[in-house]
Structures are given as structure tokens and as C-alpha cells.
Design a protein that fits this description.
Elements lengths: L9 E4 L5 E4 L8 E5 L6 H15 L3 E4 L6 H12 L6 H12 L3 E7 L1 H16 L9 E5 L10 H4 L1
Amino acid sequence: IKKEVTAGAIVKIGKNGELSVVDLEDVKPGSAIFTNGVSTHSKYALDQARAIQQDTQKELYLVYNGTDGKETDFKNALNNAFGKSGNEKAIDTIKNLLLGDKVNLLLGHSQGGLIQSLALKSLEETNPKFNFRSVELFTFGTPIHQDLLPKDFIN
């Protein structure tokens, strides 16, 4: 990777496993987005994303949930679990991808799933006419409850 992977960055994992940091407008419509969990260095988040890409054999984008150290990360994760933000860069990136019709599948591990649900919830508040049925959300290891999801997403 030629550019540094920072919080909220988008990394394309190509079908051949090639990695590149991309801009919002470079993400193809209907893409799958993965967001990593708490306190994960970018190298390990990229390894996780590459493993998902190899299993699916489809292009995948990582929206990186940056780390500020375990103490701060766990504090942010706890806030996320109660519907409060603390990872604005990743939340904003996901929200902008959703608004640009770039996403049809969200995959989130641990805090990554919370971040994705907070992006959806924020979108409900700012753009209630968004078609939430156009997006699938799969989380694993995520302490999520229905209050963190848009009503139209659940029904």
C-alpha cells in the first residue's frame, strides 16, 4: 500500500488480493464493506479483510476503524454499544458510502458492527427517506441491539 491507512480510510481489496487506499468516488456501486473491531492495528485489519475477500472471491473494501490505544478504544466501544459515537471518521465514511449508493453489504466484526449500525442510525436521523432495505448488515462478535438500528431496517 502506498498511502497510510488511517481512521476512516477506505482500502480496496481486489479479487487478486491487491490492496490500495482509495477515495469515496472510487468505490463501485453495490459494494461490500468490512469494518474491523476494537484495537486492531491496520496490518491486522487488512489481514482480516484479505481473508474475507479470499473466502468470497469478490472485491471488498475495508473502512478502517483506527486505533487510539486499548483504553481509548474500549471506552469508544462502550460508548458505541450505548448508541454514542466516538469513531466519527469511520462512521462518516460509511455514512457517505451509503448516501452515494456505494454499499449493498456491510460486514462488521465486534466494534466494526457497532460503527456500521451507528452510521445507519445516523443516516435515519439525517436522511429518513434512505432505502434501508437496499443494504444487508452482517455482524459477528458485535454486542448490538435493535435500538441501534433504523426502524425501517428492522421491519
